[in-house]
Design a protein that fits this description.
Elements: E1 4-6, E2 13-15, H1 23-38, H2 44-51, H3 55-63, E3 67-70, E4 73-77
Antiparallel strand pairs: 1-2, 3-4
Bound molecules: zinc ion.
Protein name: Flagellar protein
Length: 78
């Protein structure tokens, strides 16, 4: 598969990238990140509602170390 990889988050095949995720998941990651930077107190459930990105995906990012979750909010960024 050389220049391709399976996305860790949605399973889509995409070109190999620095982060182990496809362009659409990377887009989701940056959306979440930009909200968490501006509104660190925003609950994950509200971030999900605002972005249309599922809570389970946000948690998956956290499990891979992209975010640190605490009491329903994003506590830290990588
Ligand atoms: Zn993906």
């Amino acid at each position: 598969m050389g220049n391709y990889q399976i996305c860790d988050f949605c399973g889509n095949l995409s070109e190999r990238r620095s982060r182990k995720m496809c362009p659409s998941c990377e887009d989701a990651y940056f959306k979440i990140r930009s909200i968490a930077e501006v509104k660190p107190d925003m609950m994950v459930i509200d971030i999900s509602r605002q972005t249309g990105i599922s809570v389970s995906k946000i948690i998956a990012f956290a499990q891979k170390g992209f975010f640190i979750l605490k009491e329903g909010t994003i506590e830290g960024l990588d």
